[in-house]
Amino acid sequence: MNAERTDASNGPGTTPSGASSKVAVVTGAGSGIGRSVALELLASGWSVALAGRRTETLEETAALAAAGPGARDDAVLCVRTDVSRPEDVTALFSRVVAGFGRLDLLFNNAGTFGPGGVPVEELPYDAWRHVVDTNLNGAFLCAQAAFRQMKEQDPQGGRIINNGSISAHAPRPNSVAYTATKHALTGLTKSLSLDGRPYRIAVGQIDIGNAATDMTARMQSGILQANGQLASEPVMDVTDVARTVRHMAELPLEANVQFATVLATNMPYVGRG
Ligand SMILES: NC(=O)c1ccc[n+]([C@@H]2O[C@H](COP(=O)([O-])OP(=O)(O)OC[C@H]3O[C@@H](n4cnc5c(N)ncnc54)[C@H](OP(=O)(O)O)[C@@H]3O)[C@@H](O)[C@H]2O)c1
């Protein structure tokens, strides 16, 4: 479990064997964007803790990494975590520091759309709370734990990348919980970005539109538009998101992509649809 390490904290460090020694936590790493980002980072020499509620999907991600380029046995840690539970988040970051020695990146990615298509007046409070607990409270808890570690460690600093959404800018119909939490993430990003300056903690956000994952499977079959019509929408390959996150992650800490918007080129978003 001990990854090869250097003390460089300003861009990927290089070990004697030529591998990067940087350490990342990726939440929601058992599927979709989280899995793709974890594999992208591992393939470029990072050590990555994979977090999510389902151990079996985390282990599938680890198996894919083991079969991939430059695989290192000691580079992956699977930690079953419900990001909405403070005790799980504390345990996750403790295990990461015990295993890898420090933390250079949190990709704050775990999220849920919640019950799609339910009008606001019919949305059960429990459903609202589940989305808030996952998308906002979970992201806060992970960011807080990462911030504490990055502030205290030597060399000081690190990077947090929050996974927002196009829904951090504009809603889809009947998506009040998802849209509200994704707008709130923008506030989380800005506040952490300001508060992180004294400690070399860089905080940015990626706002994605229509990457092909489980969450967007219905985009291609037909999804409700603002004008009341159902329409299928284009999607993009999730690996294009992963490459963007890696670029953001590997900048020196003196540089930060504050907000990146990555869209399926022809999706209805720009130009009022
Ligand atoms: N795909 C897109 O086009 C798109 C666009 C905008 C934003 N996003 C954002 O991207 C992120 C990932 O979405 P995705 O498209 O990759 O969908 P996905 O495959 O459904 O991924 C969601 C991930 O979050 C994890 N998760 C959910 N609740 C959790 C909890 N309480 N604790 C820990 N992990 C939890 C899930 O794993 P477990 O069920 O095992 O916990 C799953 O791996 C989300 O934040 C989403 O809002 C996606």
TrEMBL record:
<dbReference type="InterPro" id="IPR036291">
    <property type="entry name" value="NAD(P)-bd_dom_sf"/>
</dbReference>
<keyword id="KW-0560">Oxidoreductase</keyword>
<feature type="compositionally biased region" description="Polar residues">
    <location>
        <begin position="8"/>
        <end position="20"/>
    </location>
</feature>
<dbReference type="InterPro" id="IPR002347">
    <property type="entry name" value="SDR_fam"/>
</dbReference>
<dbReference type="GO" id="GO:0016491">
    <property type="term" value="F:oxidoreductase activity"/>
</dbReference>
<feature type="region of interest" description="Disordered">
    <location>
        <begin position="1"/>
        <end position="21"/>
    </location>
</feature>
<protein>
    <submittedName>
        <fullName>3-oxoacyl-ACP reductase</fullName>
    </submittedName>
</protein>
<comment type="similarity">
    <text>Belongs to the short-chain dehydrogenases/reductases (SDR) family.</text>
</comment>
<dbReference type="Pfam" id="PF00106">
    <property type="entry name" value="adh_short"/>
</dbReference>
<dbReference type="InterPro" id="IPR020904">
    <property type="entry name" value="Sc_DH/Rdtase_CS"/>
</dbReference>
